[in-house]
Amino acid sequence: MCAAAVLFDTAKAQTLKFDADNFTQKQLTMPDGFVVKYKAYENIFYVSNVEDSVYQTLNVYVPENLKQDSPIFLRTYIGGYLASKAKQPSANDASGRALEEGYVVCIPGSRGSNSFVHKEIYVSKKGKKKKRVLSDEFQTVYTGKFPAGLLDLKAAVRYLKANDALIAGNSNKIITDGTSAGGAMSALLASTGNHPDYEELLDKMGAEKAADDVWAAVCFCPITDLEHADMAYEWLYGFCNKNIRELDSCHEALSEKLSKLYPEYLNSLNLKNPETGEQLTAENYLDYLKSWLLKSVSKAFEEGQEISDTAGVTFYDESKESRCIVDFNLEKYLEYVAKSQRLKNPPAFDSQNFCSNPPSAENKAFGLSDGTTLNFTEFAVGHILTDDLVKRVKMMNPMNYISDNQAVKAKNWYIRHGAKDRDTGFQISLNLALKLLGEGFNVNYFLPWETSHTGDYNLNELFDWLEAL
Ligand code: DHB
After folding, report:
1. Predicted pLDDT of residue 138
2. CA separation (Å) from 277 to 280, 282, 437?
3. What are 108's strand-pairing partners?
4. Is there a single domain that holds both residue 233 and residue 91?
5. What's the helix, strand, coil split of the chain in %, to 5?
């Protein structure tokens, strides 16, 4: 006797044809009082082999004031790599604003590290497939370990493209938007279009046979480059291990080891200062980062924001009229950030199995369908990763695809990382922006002053940028 598990029939194979007549009429009142009326097409399966019917659906919203040749604004609500249901547009974020602007909005659900289905446990007698429930017990099977959530979003993009003739808006103008883990997903969608790495997996899911490249990516505080984010973090913040982080000796030793690994990686990226053409290396990189933070504080100062006395900024102050910023001390500034919210302990991302650290959101996301959490860096594992992990780690990092000609990249990128956001090192978003610039893409990057780990802010600025594309 051997036991084998078979999935519940969570949903029958669906036809993936969009039904343009199957909508309800809805409306949303925006903060400025404008009432957006729209057609709501909801709970649509976007793959034919649905594994998780709670999450593998999407909603499409078509506003009454539809723009001509309207882009399709695809907003993901993924956070922490968790599962995310298809939602309705919100008046308080970019989804509502996109509708107000006359864009079609798509909000797909996607599986994540915490989504699971229950499988019945069947028994088969030797050689025979006898379907009989073994017991009342169900087996919990996690459905959304990396790269499942990304595959779901790619399948949603394919659905929009395959149904282009039936869905309002232009599927050649898909804009992706997300924050944090969702910002990473937005960057991944926009950097891995049509890449063969994902093909077999998408095929198995019953995704449409269509392209999945997108036109523009909006990425708020993207948590990416996970296999190098630990070393980047310690290289940036390690100097304050004693005085601010108050690390114990176990974490402090880790921080030092990780920090030493970063220069080689940073140098290998072959990044250039886009203004001067100068090569960026571990030697001059911090000065370059400082120049971005100086731009950030200068903008805030010009706009009349109060600048904190402890943010490392020196003013020339002779008279109020001629008050201006004359210097910026990066270390003092990083201390200011570190004091505003406790820094993560090392390793900041691949944390489990070190110094009694609990598993991180990343350890969960790279885990297995039985719920096992996993380390995913060679540093943590201590040797080369399994083939399965090598593939999954590669597929979840946009940096691996930007110079790969087999991936069709979005031409336009809007990347924001709050200057007071310590969830990942500033290098992560900056390197993403620099690598894209190096490949000739249209990149709008900024580190907004006093902004923490959040997204969908300054929507006037964002939509002005989108309108000008
Ligand atoms: C998110 C935040 C993190 O600090 C992280 O490591 C992963 C994800 C998030 O907010 O999505």
Report:
1. 78
2. 9, 16, 11
3. 58
4. no
5. 35, 20, 45
Cα 186 from Cα 180, distance rounded (Å):
9
Atom of ligand 1 nearest to the CA of 181: 11
Q: Is the CB of 80 under 6 A from ligand 1?
A: yes
360 inside domain: no
Rounded to whole angstroms, what are the CA distances from 29 to 143, 275, 343?
36, 43, 39
pLDDT of 119 reads 82
Among candidate residues 319, 348, 377, the one where a domain is terminated: 348
Q: What is the pLDDT of residue 105?
A: 99
Contact in structure between 121 and 135 (CB atoms under 8 Å): yes
Task: Determine if ligand 1 sits within 6 Å of the CB of residue 438.
Answer: no
Question: How many domains are there within the chain?
Answer: 2
Nearest CA to ligand 1 atom 4: 423
The rounded distance, in Å, linking the Cα atoms of 394 and 11 is 31
Check pocket membership of 263 for ligand 1, CB cut-off 6 A: no
| Residue 430 in domain | no
What is residue 254's three-state secondary structure? helix
3-state secondary structure of 156: helix
- The residue whose CA is least distant from atom 7 of ligand 1 is 80
CA 249 to chain centre: 33
Residue stretches of the chain with pLDDT short of 70: 1-15, 121-136
The reply to whether 23 and 159 lie within a common domain is yes
Find the 453 Cα to ligand 1 centroid distance in Å. Answer: 9
63 lines ligand 1 (CB under 6 A): no
Per-residue confidence (pLDDT) for residue 130, from 0 to 100: 55
Whether ligand 1 lies within 6 angstroms of the CB of 343 is answered as: no
Tokens, residue 230: 């630990």
Rounded (5°) CA angle 77-80-85: 35
Does any domain span residue 103? Answer: yes
**Pocket lining: 371 vs ligand 1, CB cutoff 6 Å:** no
Q: What's the pLDDT at 350?
A: 98
Give the Å distance between the CA of 343 and the centre of ligand 1. Answer: 13
Going from the Cα of 125 to the center of ligand 1, the distance in angstroms, rounded, reads 46
Domain finish residue from 160, 195, 220: 220
Which pTM does this prediction carry?
0.94
- Residue 14: its pLDDT value, please? 45
